[in-house]
């Protein structure tokens, strides 16, 4: 669905990404993982033109992502960030339906779509008229997801979507999200720095370091067939709980 | 008249922008307007003119406008129909040549001149009697031996060829301590020995009130300043009876009479000029006040307040609305294009550093050129508009640039086109900041609008300036208190609106 070819990105003279070539297959979940500053957030932004590459090309369904095509790419791609990125001056419903109102959908169509989405994300109907600051972090994330799914996009991009949540809510949302991804069959790109989360979601894991792909494959590949010592260190650093005897 | 004024107040919302457009006031029922300079004598004479015009069967009103240039401009462009002037001023300041035939020289400008009204109000120099006696000064030429004397003159006198520059040259004086000040304040300063010498008008009530010495013009510098009417030539066609009435004053006011009237209005009693003028007309010409003048809105404090409030809002509201309409887009552009933004912010910042009074006066020729009207509300509105820009531009800019990057990115990622993004997301997010800017601009605007009194724009500045001129504290407060109250009301209203937005954001 997304093809990156020899893409590089330089921030104020310092290379942040690439040269990098990557294929994001349709209908699968690709997880971008790596330590802070590895370029995974830059990479996901490149996909919908929030960041423009200094060299190389980004394509969406074989169409180059350029200034003239980004609007179309963005409408066919849902984007969710940490804590939802909700607009504080709009209610949950207004956040979700912003694009529909802009596109001039009629009331009935909007209402129908909102109920579908609320059911899908298990968001309580009475929370729709609340402002973002009046609902919990987990609920905000559901609203962010509803907003991203409103136009029934082909792809869903999530940048550390669960980073701000406590472990219980996080675990609950993880399984809900995976169910939603599976039921919708959409192309998903998810950024995280948590290997457990990556393994939970991924059909394909892409491990990045210093703007380069270190290893690409299944989570099991990373674990059992590390490409180099960095992968081993990265995998071993994600230790489980050490329960005192 | 009163009903017209009331309905005008009622419809103010609709007509707020009208003062911006010249020639929009209904010409059919245009009243006769008698102008006055901003000092008591001129106001009293203009008040007589207003009442005489009424006796001649016309609607009329007075309009105190400021200095000679503003009056002359207003007369020639038709804002006023007549005003009291002095022959010396006409020769040396208006016509600048000392032409042999005044009437012919004025006719070129479409202006006619009456015969002298009877009294002269000459320029002279005045001192405290005790100070003058101690230094042995009785004539202007004696001043040459006392260059240490501190002088305080009104600004106009400092600039006029028939004022201080001329005196200095004629008498070869070398005084260096010369400051410009308000005429009434100069008298106070003289009495309190803060200055030693000031210019006086020979009919000033203060000369008798403070028992001052008028220096002898022993080398005949000052020309005669005989009071006359200047009126538009077309007034004789439109209202022949009004001209007839105005001319009845010719040769009718003696110097002691004028001095006494000035004293009544300016001394301890602070009598209203309207009353002083009315009594004089009654006694010397047998004219009784027509009902229109006593029933005028100026009669009661409430009526005066309603009028000045209306006039003040007529300056504040259009200038503020126009500033919002221009400054918000400028702020948006400034936020979008940083380099252009720096220029916009610097330019509006510079406008803010120009002293407000200077900006106001600078707008007179500008508006004369742009809309053909250089006095009254248009230049005041233009200056207030420029003055209101900076707080709104700056706050719009910082409101927009202060939106967190994640929110801006979220809006972009949705695929909203730039205008929709601005309208639906960015401006609402910046709204509290923008509102705070509008609030600041509004409060500055209300305060600065009082300076409109200097150029005949009306509003709360009128009683303030008249009050300063007459040293009449209650009259000053009549403008100052409502101005402060209006500023507080605006603060409160914006506070409520801001709280509404803050709750949502």
**What is the CATH third-level topology name of the largest domain in chain B?**
MetI-like fold
SS elements, strand count of chain A: 10
What is the distance, rounded to the nearest whole angstrom, between the alpha carbons of the first and last residues of chain B? 49 Å
CATH architecture of the largest domain in chain B: Orthogonal Bundle
- The percent of residues in helical segments of chain A reads 25-40%
Number of domains of chain A: 2
Q: What ranges of chain B have pLDDT less than 50 throughout 5 or more consecutive residues?
A: 1-28, 291-297
Alpha-beta classification of chain A:
alpha/beta
Number of helices of chain B: 24
Average pLDDT metric of chain A: 88
In which range does the helix fraction of chain B lie? 55-70%
Mean pLDDT of chain B: 84
Strand order of the largest sheet of chain A: 6-7-8-3-9-10
Low-confidence stretches of chain A: none
In short:
Chain A is α/β, with parallel strands linked by helices. Chain A has nine helices and ten strands.
Question: What key phrases describe this protein's structure?
Answer:
heterodimer; A: about 240 residues; Rossmann fold; 2 domains; 4-stranded antiparallel β-sheet; 10 strands; about 40% helix; globular; B: alpha/beta; D-Maltodextrin-Binding Protein, domain 2; MetI-like fold; 3 domains; 5-stranded mixed β-sheet; 3-stranded antiparallel β-sheet; about 10% strand; disordered N terminus
Overview of the structural elements:
The complex is a heterodimer of chains A (245) and B (505). Chain A has two domains: 2-76 and 155-237, P-loop containing nucleotide triphosphate hydrolases (Rossmann fold, 3-Layer(aba) Sandwich); 87-152, no CATH class. Chain A is 38% helix and 25% strand. Chain A contains nine helices and ten strands. Chain A has helices spanning 40-47, 70-75, 92-102, 107-121, 137-149, 167-184, 195-201, 219-224, 229-237, and strands at residues 2-11, 14-24, 29-33, 55-60, 63-64, 77-81, 155-159, 187-192, 204-209, 212-217. In chain A, strands 6-7-8-3-9-10 form a six-stranded mixed sheet, with helices on both faces. Chain A has a four-stranded antiparallel sheet with strand order 2-1-4-5, covered by helices on one side. In chain A, helix 6 (167-184) links the parallel strand 7 and strand 8. The longest helix of chain A has 18 residues, at 167-184. The N and C termini of chain A lie far apart (49 Å). Chain B has 505 residues and is α/β, with parallel strands linked by helices. Chain B folds into three domains: 31-119 and 225-296, Periplasmic binding protein-like II (D-Maltodextrin-Binding Protein, domain 2); 123-214, D-Maltodextrin-Binding Protein, domain 2; 302-504, MetI-like (MetI-like fold). Chain B has 24 helices and ten strands. Chain B has helices at residues 2-10, 12-15, 40-55, 68-77, 87-94, 102-107, 129-135, 155-159, 164-171, 183-191, 205-209, 235-238, 240-246, 255-266, 273-285, 291-294, 301-336, 338-353, 356-371, 377-401, 405-413, 418-448, 461-470, 473-504; strands spanning 32-37, 60-66, 82-86, 111-113, 123-128, 151-153, 178-180, 197-201, 212-214, 227-232. In chain B, the strands form three sheets. A five-stranded mixed sheet of chain B has the order 7-6-8-5-9. In chain B, strand 1 (32-37), helix 3 (40-55) and strand 2 (60-66) form a beta-alpha-beta unit. The longest helix of chain B is centred in the middle third of the chain and has 36 residues, at 301-336. Chain B starts with a helix and ends with a helix. The model of chain B is unreliable at 1-28 and 291-297 (pLDDT under 50). Classes of the chains: A alpha/beta (245), B alpha/beta (505). Chains A and B meet through helix 2, strand 6 and helix 3 of A and helix 21 and helix 22 of B.
